[in-house]
Amino acid sequence: MSQIIDGLKYTQEHEWVKDNGDGTATCGITDHAQHMLTDIVFAELPENGKALSKGDRAAVVESVKAVSDIYSPVSGEVIEANLSLEDAPENINEDPYGNGWIFKLKMSNPEELSGLMDAAAYKDFVESGE
Fold first, then answer.
1. What is the dihedral of CA 60, 61, 64, 65, to 10 degrees?
2. Looking at residue 16, what DSSP letter applies?
3. Nearest Cα to 15, choosing from 64, 56, 63?
4. Distance of alpha carbon 37 from its chain centroid, rounded?
5. pLDDT tens, 28-48?
6. Contact 63, 38 (CB under 8 A)
7. Are 71 and 13 in contact (CB under 8 A)?
8. What is the C-alpha to C-alpha distance for residues 106 and 129, in angstroms, rounded to an integer?
9. Residues 54-73: pLDDT tens digits?
């Protein structure tokens, strides 16, 4: 079973978001998603200052199997991209909730977090195979 972290919020597209408590959020892809993609070999990161609406394409990851869009779980402005992924995209596979985070946002509508799945709901979603 893939690792799912309590305290994070999840999307049906297998992104996770962490409310940093200061109006910012850290975003990445779930352990389940990185398992489905297998070995990630490239990450195209968003530029600082880019405005994203919930559901907008924020980044792209390329694995040996596929190229996948990464969508923003909430609306906001990109304040930081994880530049270490340019040289070490495998961090997404090795530590998707830690060193493998993809970008950080200054949230413009933090209320959007309440519409995302918590860990228990995401676990049920993954197990349902949707």
1. -60
2. E
3. 56
4. 14
5. 999 999 999 999 999 999 999
6. yes
7. yes
8. 32
9. 999 999 999 998 999 999 99
Which residues lie closer than 8 Å to 30 by C-beta, 6 or more apart?
Answer: 2, 4, 10, 14, 15, 16, 96, 122
Sheet (strand 40-44) strand order: 40-44, 57-63, 67-71
Q: For tokens 């985070």, what's the residue?
A: 101
Residue 102: alpha-carbon gap to chain centroid = 6
Using DSSP's 3-state secondary structure scheme, residue 3 falls into coil
CB 102 within 8 A of CB 81: yes
Closest CA to 15 of 62, 57, 51: 57
DSSP for residue 117 = B
